[in-house]
């Protein structure tokens, strides 16, 4: 049986590819291939049918492809919102194309390059400038003002992050700011009578950290993932020293090697004074949820985006509080990242009807109370004023998150440079940060090397 | 002795030939052309030999990454083949329970590059992980295997060793094809096991040894999983293997032209190795169809 | 002997056993405890993961994987047998060159091929179906399998072919009646490898398939992994185990084909 099946199959392969070749094997086996070939054809047509019926076969139906990345909660909430929208708008079909973060960008750029990108797609703030400059990928939202209420997005967010060359290229789903989330149980000794912790300066932070580690050698004041050490500690320190955006929009740096070396000196103290979990241990975990010290309540606190507070403490039985980032005594700005994080764009290369329908859908998705209540904070604290109001009114923001928002809003900070979170730029930062942490380079050498490499990466990005 | 089969051979290889012309040749040629351009997925500009010149003169990462990849390949390919062959020979000798052992040794390969792999490796190799627990039991204080830049590359070499299912299965299939009468006759003639192995088994399975050596070299030199999934190339770029560098250049920096040039350099390296392998193979590989 | 094999099996297998039991643990225990057995057994990971991974019932991913893998494997084996036979037993002009060309297609890193290939499949209208996988398999696009069978075919003495030829068998019959029965083990191995590789393939389906309802397990398993969300590792690990199960069963079923080699079927040299 098995052998015959194989022979039939091979004949099928030979038959399909080689119908023209004269020297076909004896007639007994040639009959079989036709059958097999037919079944393959059937399968393909079946697939084809599938496609048309799923991708909006019914007449008059307009289908929109919408892609995003995320975890379970985001997928489930978004699908539910789509379902509600489709019910209310029978002519519209939203095709969800969601995935995990890994591979999303690779796929998106491949799709953009071959003109096959979704109609609506989620983007990271760090990609926007580059995709605009290279790919001209985004439709201008201001052309669809009648379909989508742009006034719900705060003015400063609109100018700083959404508008390029006078066109509204992206809109924010959620926005973020950096705060310090601390474990009140572990840090009880250093909290005031109400149980609140105050760490105004980095010196305070180091003091408490040292004392904590002395008291319990297993505990550390803080930890982070690789990206976190860079974005929540090293870069804020650097911005506090310079008072400038570190990667500016004209492709220059807001700091010199000396200032960077100074930032490295302060940064390294969190390791040398054992205030942070040793980097070589922290580096193994790609999220706090995998870090045993955090899970066991042995970490004083972590720097994070206020949108992520609920995620990081999910399932943990400790008492938590939030406070602002520490600053150097004479610093003018905090260096926190306070910006929209997840953004959304409409594909430029689709027809007007689709663009209009996409804008209408996004208006509902971003601004409406109905959608906001389904979506909650799965894409961070909403950037849209009406959505945020809906969540506040219905008590859908946790106390810690509300506190985090307030703290972050009260802190003076600079905007993110357009290329500051660009992946190539960040890779250079990480490379040299690790060199310093592992003692491969001195802070001075690393500062020199990093400045040079950044300049060449920025030159490449500025080339267009 | 066969008649009129001058062209019959083409008929049999036609599926591949067609696939080659339609599906493979185009991407190949295109990527070769890209390697002489500045291409960022959206715009293309002719750059002549600039990419290649930059790789050899300006690139700070290229040499280190290629060197680590070659070291990785040079150590893990022979070890992987040796382990696979030894395990296959042992399994071949087993009389009972073969199926169970066989499955166990193949299981890691079924796991492939699943996301669970990263969880598993960290569980074994982290500071307070399984390995250090065992070492601690015999009084050795273990290192931080994945966090120590001096060790991490070597620890990662264990991954292909652990996932040696494919060559093992092939070795076993080859060992099965060694006629029992031949080895038994030799043994009756008084040959020692090692002599039987060297003069009968080894030549009989040499085509498969050769196949495994070539394929594993090609595969491991392009290995992507350990760096991408477990270490992200770190710490301090110690596991930044060539394929990950290539991937970052293409998809993170969107420098497709440069990445294509990097690819063709790797292609040249691999094909050189392969040609040397083939040239050397004439001395030690025996085929049953040779007269 | 058994001692050594058992010891080796424990070293290889223990981490996998831990992984299996991790599926029964609470999320935080997976990362904080070194023990093999969970403190409290919970099958929640299996139940939740099966009911819905990223809002899709897990069985959908499994069925998709089968739809993608089974035809791919059969076509791979079929095409590889033909092409390998062509290279092993025929003389024709340019054979060496073509063979070299075939092998060399394995040597260019996939990263740079992915984009032009994607564009090609997009032109053909094959995206969002499993056609790219089927066609690549039917056209022997992975030379690994062809070369593997070629190596084994070359080990079969030509005298056998010639004897059959003298008895009046055509070239096709020689392949099906003489060569293939002797090459069962490598053919089954090839099928097994292709099953495992296609089953685990992540990047190709990621690029070619947009619709989540058509995702195979390899993509489905990663859908829920996100650094900014709560990740239920126990259900991901549980579903990883479930997704390995069909392949393990297949492997166990196919074993007898490796175990009975030519030596027992009485081939003479």
From TrEMBL, chain A:
PANTHER family reported in the protein's UniProt record: ABC TRANSPORTER SUBSTRATE-BINDING PROTEIN YESO-RELATED, ARABINOSE-BINDING PROTEIN-RELATED
Keyword Signal attributed: yes
Biased composition annotated in UniProt, kind: Basic and acidic residues: 39-53
This protein's UniProt keywords: Signal
Keyword Signal: yes
Ranges of Polar residues composition bias in the record: 24-38
TM spans (from-to): none
Organism, scientific name: Cuneatibacter caecimuris
Chain positions covered by the region annotation Disordered: 21-57
Coiled coil: none
UniProt signal peptide: 1-19
Protein name as annotated: Oligogalacturonide transport system substrate-binding protein
TrEMBL record, chain B:
InterPro entries in UniProt: ABC_transporter_permease (IPR051393), MetI-like (IPR000515), MetI-like_sf (IPR035906)
Membrane topology qualifier: Multi-pass membrane protein
Chain ranges of the ABC transmembrane type-1 domain: 66-277
SUPFAM superfamilies with a match to the protein in the record: MalF N-terminal region-like, MetI-like
Residues spanning the membrane: 7-34, 70-91, 103-124, 151-175, 196-215, 261-281
Name of one Pfam family that matches: BPD_transp_1
Keywords: Cell membrane, Membrane, Transmembrane, Transmembrane helix, Transport
Claim: Protein biosynthesis is one of the keywords in the record: no
GO cellular component term of the entry, any: plasma membrane
Compartments, record wording: Cell membrane
One of the GO biological process terms: transmembrane transport
CDD domains xrefs: TM_PBP2
Keyword match Thylakoid: no
Record-stated family: Belongs to the binding-protein-dependent transport system permease family.
Record's protein name: Carbohydrate ABC transporter membrane protein 1 (CUT1 family)
Species of the source: Cuneatibacter caecimuris
Source taxonomy: Bacteria, Bacillati, Bacillota, Clostridia, Lachnospirales
């Amino acid at each position: 049986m098995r052998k015959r099946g194989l022979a039939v199959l091979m004949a099928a392969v030979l038959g399909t590819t080689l119908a023209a070749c004269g020297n076909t094997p004896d007639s007994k086996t040639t009959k079989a291939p036709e059958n097999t070939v037919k079944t393959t054809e059937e399968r393909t047509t079946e697939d084809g049918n599938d496609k048309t019926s799923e991708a909006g076969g019914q007449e008059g139906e307009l289908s929109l492809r919408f892609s995003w990345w995320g975890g379970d909660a985001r997928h489930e909430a978004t699908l539910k919102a789509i379902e509600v929208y489709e019910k209310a708008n029978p002519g519209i079909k939203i095709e969800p194309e969601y995935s995990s973060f890994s591979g999303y960008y690779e796929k998106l750029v491949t799709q953009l390059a071959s003109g096959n990108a979704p109609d609506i797609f989620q983007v990271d703030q760090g990609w926007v400038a580059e995709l605009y400059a290279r790919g001209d990928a985004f439709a201008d939202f201001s052309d669809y003002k009648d379909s989508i209420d742009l006034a719900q997005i705060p003015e400063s967010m609109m100018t700083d992050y959404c508008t390029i060359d006078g066109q509204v290229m992206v809109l924010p789903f959620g926005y973020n700011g950096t705060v310090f989330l601390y474990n009140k149980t572990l840090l009880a000794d250093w909290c005031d009578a109400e149980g609140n912790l105050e760490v105004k300066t980095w010196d305070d932070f180091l003091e408490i950290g040292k004392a904590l580690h002395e008291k319990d050698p297993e505990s550390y004041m803080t930890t982070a993932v690789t990206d976190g050490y860079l974005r929540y500690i090293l870069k804020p320190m650097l911005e506090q020293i310079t008072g400038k955006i570190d990667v500016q929009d004209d492709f220059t740096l807001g700091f010199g090697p000396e200032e960077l070396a100074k930032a490295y000196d302060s940064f390294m103290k969190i390791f040398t004074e054992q205030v942070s979990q040793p980097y070589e241990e922290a580096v193994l975990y790609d999220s706090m949820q995998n870090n045993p010290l955090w899970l066991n309540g042995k970490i004083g606190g972590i720097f994070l985006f206020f949108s992520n507070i609920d995620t990081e403490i999910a399932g943990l039985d400790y008492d938590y509080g939030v406070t602002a980032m520490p600053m150097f005594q004479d610093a003018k700005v905090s260096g926190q990242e306070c910006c929209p994080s997840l953004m959304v764009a409409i594909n430029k290369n689709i027809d007007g009807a689709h663009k209009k329908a996409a804008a209408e859908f996004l208006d509902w998705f971003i601004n409406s109370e109905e959608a906001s209540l389904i979506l909650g904070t799965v894409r961070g604290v909403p950037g849209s004023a009406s959505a945020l109001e809906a969540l506040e009114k219905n008590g859908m923001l946790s106390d810690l998150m509300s506190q985090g928002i307030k703290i972050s809003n009260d802190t003076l900070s600079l905007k993110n440079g357009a290329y500051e979170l660009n992946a190539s730029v960040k890779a250079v930062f990480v490379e040299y940060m690790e060199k310093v942490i592992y003692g491969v380079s001195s802070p001075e050498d690393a500062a020199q090397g990093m400045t040079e490499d950044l300049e060449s990466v920025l030159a490449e990005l500025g080339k267009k | 002795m066969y008649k009129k089969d001058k062209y019959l051979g083409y008929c049999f290889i036609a599926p591949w030939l067609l696939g080659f012309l339609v599906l493979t040749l185009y991407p190949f040629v295109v990527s070769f052309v890209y390697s002489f351009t500045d291409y960022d997925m959206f715009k293309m500009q002719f750059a002549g030999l600039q990419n290649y010149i930059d790789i050899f003169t300006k690139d700070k990462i290229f040499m280190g990454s290629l060197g680590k990849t070659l070291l990785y390949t040079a150590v893990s390919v022979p070890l992987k083949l040796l382990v696979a062959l030894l395990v296959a020979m042992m399994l071949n000798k087993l009389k009972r329970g073969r199926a169970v052992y066989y499955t166990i040794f193949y299981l890691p390969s079924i796991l492939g590059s699943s996301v669970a792999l990263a969880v598993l490796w960290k569980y074994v190799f982290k500071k307070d992980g399984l390995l250090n627990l065992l070492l601690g039991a015999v009084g050795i204080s273990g290192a931080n295997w994945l966090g120590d830049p001096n060790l991490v590359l070597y620890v990662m070499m264990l991954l292909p060793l652990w996932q040696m299912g494919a060559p093992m299965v092939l070795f076993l299939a080859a060992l099965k094809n060694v006629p029992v009468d031949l080895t038994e006759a030799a043994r009756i003639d008084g040959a020692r096991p090692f002599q039987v192995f060297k003069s009968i088994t080894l030549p009989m399975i040499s085509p498969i040894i050769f196949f495994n050596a070539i394929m594993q070299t090609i595969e491991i030199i392009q290995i992507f999983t350990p760096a991408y999934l477990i270490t992200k190339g770190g710490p301090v770029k110690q596991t930044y293997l060539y394929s990950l560098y290539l991937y970052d250049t293409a998809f993170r920096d969107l420098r497709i032209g440069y990445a294509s040039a990097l690819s063709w350099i790797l292609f040249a390296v691999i094909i050189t190795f392969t040609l040397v392998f083939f040239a050397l193979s004439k001395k030690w590989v025996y085929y049953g169809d040779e007269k | 002997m058994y001692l050594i094999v058992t010891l080796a099996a424990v070293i290889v297998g223990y981490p996998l056993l831990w992984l299996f039991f991790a599926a029964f643990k609470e999320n935080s225990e997976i990362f904080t405890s070194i023990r093999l057995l969970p403190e409290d057994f919970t099958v929640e990971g299996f139940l939740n993961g099966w009911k819905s991974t990223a809002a899709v019932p897990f069985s959908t991913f499994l069925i998709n994987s089968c739809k993608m893998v089974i035809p791919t494997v059969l076509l791979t084996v079929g095409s590889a047998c033909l092409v390998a036979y062509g290279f092993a037993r025929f003389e024709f002009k340019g054979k060496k060159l073509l063979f070299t060309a075939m092998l060399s297609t394995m040597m260019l890193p996939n990263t740079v091929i992915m984009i032009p290939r994607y564009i090609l499949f997009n032109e053909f209208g094959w995206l969002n179906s499993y056609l790219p996988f089927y066609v690549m398999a039917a056209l022997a696009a992975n030379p690994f399998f062809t070369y593997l069978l070629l190596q084994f075919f070359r080990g079969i003495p030509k005298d056998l072919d010639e004897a059959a030829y003298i008895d009046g068998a055509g070239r096709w019959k020689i392949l099906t009646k003489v060569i293939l029965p002797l090459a069962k083990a490598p053919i089954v191995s090839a099928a097994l490898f292709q099953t495992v590789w296609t089953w685990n393939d992540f990047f190709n389906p990621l690029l070619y398939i947009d619709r989540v309802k058509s995702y195979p397990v390899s993509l489905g398993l990663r859908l829920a992994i996100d650094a900014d969300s709560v990740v239920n590792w126990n259900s991901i690990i549980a579903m990883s185990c479930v997704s390995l199960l069909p392949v393990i069963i297949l492997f166990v079923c196919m074993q007898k084909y490796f175990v009975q080699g030519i030596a027992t079927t009485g081939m003479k040299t």
